[in-house]
Amino acid sequence: MLSRLSRPRALAVCALPLVVLLATAAFAPLPFSVAQPGMTANVLGDNQGAPVITISGAPVRDTSGQLRMTTIEATGPDARIMLGDVLDGWFRTDQAIMPRDAVYPSGESTKEIERHNTEQMEDSQDAATQAALAYLKLGEDDVEVTLKLADVGGPSAGLLFSLGIVDKLDGHGAGGDLTGGRTIAGTGTIDADGKVGAVGGVALKTQAARRDGATVFLVPKNECSDAKSELPKGLRLVPVTTLKGAVSALVALEKGKGPVPGC
To answer: Ranges for the Lon proteolytic domain (predicted)?
Structure first.
């Protein structure tokens, strides 16, 4: 025999699975990482007591201004991210909630991830050197470039490495600084042909850049919308697709001549 439940009792029965689900979510770790603006480093200067860029085999210029690569900091792959952390991050502009698999390769240990990030950084440095020397029409057999940046992994500093090499060797091409004395920040991968690629986390990187004094931010063109989403006041976005385009934009900005692209 079936009996009919009263409306309050029926609602209580239907709501019970949802209550159990929410209670479980509240106390169980979730597959997310919490990211926030990270450190920045001036590739034209020193990092932890050592020059970021060292060049031999060609005259090197004294530079002014700064070219700051930017990073994000994310909770580790083994961190316990709870429902409260996720809800808090969704309502903050200085944090982002990202799927853990989008930050760290799934199925890899912390040491494997660190090794992977180190390899990506080394590959990025090689590509950045090749792109810069090719842009300047200098041979790798004649010019030796060493790049050193402690405690940073991944490929996203490639563009700034290349620009730093160009500035140290050639400036804006007519005796002046590529930066125009400004603090320029940015992000972007680069390949040996000088093509700039997307990196992710640009909205947080713009905040790190402005915090550390930048007034101009170079961003991969197809990430303009993300960069604009939480753009700090006083920071100008300049979209780029190639090393040549990035140099041209900075020269136009420094000399006040020619168009400077915008997002």
So the answer is: 154-236
Strand duo 66-74 + 183-186: pairing:
parallel
- Tokens for 82, please give them: 């709870």
Read off the pLDDT band of 4 (50, 70, 90).
Answer: very low
Q: CA 211, CA 117: separation in Å to the nearest integer?
A: 25
**Architecture of the 38-73+110-255 domain:** 2-Layer Sandwich (3.30)
pLDDT digits (tens, 9 = 90+) for 172-225: 888 889 999 999 999 999 999 999 999 989 999 999 999 999 999 999 999 999
Half-sphere exposure of 73 (CA within 13 A, CB side): 9
Q: In 54-71, which positions are buried (b, 16+ CB within 10 angstroms) versus exposed (e)?
A: ebeeeeebebebbbbbbb
CB 206 within 8 A of CB 231: yes
A 10 A CB-CB count for 13 gives 10
